[in-house]
Amino acid sequence: MELFRISSYEGVPGEVKKCVLLYSGGLDTSVMIKWIMEKYGCELVTLTLDIGQATKNLEEVKSKAIKLGVSDAYVIDAKKEFADEYISKAIKANALYEDAYPITTAIARPLKAKWAVKIAEEVNADAVAHGSTGKGNDQVRFDITITALNPNLKIIAPVREWGLGRDEEIKYAEEHGIPIPVDIDNPYSVDENLWGRSVECGDIEYPEKEVPKNALAWCKPWEETPDTPEYVEIEFEEGVPVSLNGKDMELWKIIKELNEIGGKHGVGLIDHMEDRIIGLKSREFYEAPAATIIIKAHKDLEKTVCTRHENWFKPIVDKEWTNLVYSGLWIEPLTKDLEAFIDKVNKKVNGLVRVKLYKGNAMIVGRDSPNALYDLKLATYEKGQLFNQAASPGYIELYGLQSRMAYKLNGKW
Ligand code: ARG
Asked: Which residues pair with 170 in a beta bridge?
């Protein structure tokens, strides 16, 4: 059945001349190479970004694309850019969508979109293709960001239109000389980067069942973690980690190391009932050790240096920012407006946080900051304290005035 194109930005066979495909090297996007060339009759260039996914050898991914007939294959190391310009914002916003998901996949999409547009402009392509399905969030994120950055670019999302089942896809691959991955029986759909690992499909689609151990790759199941706790110390500057256990390191390296240490202790396993942008509710599973540890540490330090009023208001802004990014609106002005506020608050988020990792837990056990609003001389119950307790009753009398009046008039216990 021919696809009915309802929107103006969708590529049309015959009209697209040259297309940049966001290529992971996996089966889906490899099938896409042949399928797009066949169906759209256009020239193809692939783009693969290294943002810390497990795929070790990206040169192999490149030569695989060339072998499949693309005219050029770009591989770009974007780990530092991803950490410094995207993940750092998620840290400052304590970004947890629906209080659970550290937007691991979502935060990488604008970066991929940006690079896809850049390469498309460089090679004079008139379209960008991506591997998203028509049921998920990623299509929303890619389509909005890419067409915002360059309204002349058309989008091709083969999975949305090809209607191939898993078996048909494998058959198509066999017929077109596309290598079938060795783990073809793996039931899970995985998206990975420095900030975390998102897993879908297989048994995860049954929310009443515990996620099987074979869905885990970064984290040890809690039953198999060490019996002794491990401590990590993270130093923050303006809300961003700058050193780990006393060693200054680039953010992407701190994240990489914390994924390993945290994973060993089963920290960062997230089983989440999620509301997608397009209306679906789904059960999602994540492994995000570094994100879990860093956000917890950051939140704690932020609370230590901010006033009660800031601590009340900032989570509202954080939540809104996170929702906008999750929902594909990286380019929306409100996202940037909120970022300005988040950055401003984070200027004073400096200091050290100590975290204890044990059996799936990451507990903050110490924090120290030159900007702490905590003052031992005020807070202590010991002798020599400076807090004027005699002033408290006067404060309480006025503070509770209206509530007491209202209770007297019509209060019921
Ligand atoms: N639900 C998450 C999101 O929309 C993750 C999607 C990950 N995709 C995947 N193929 N596992 O951000």
From this structure: none
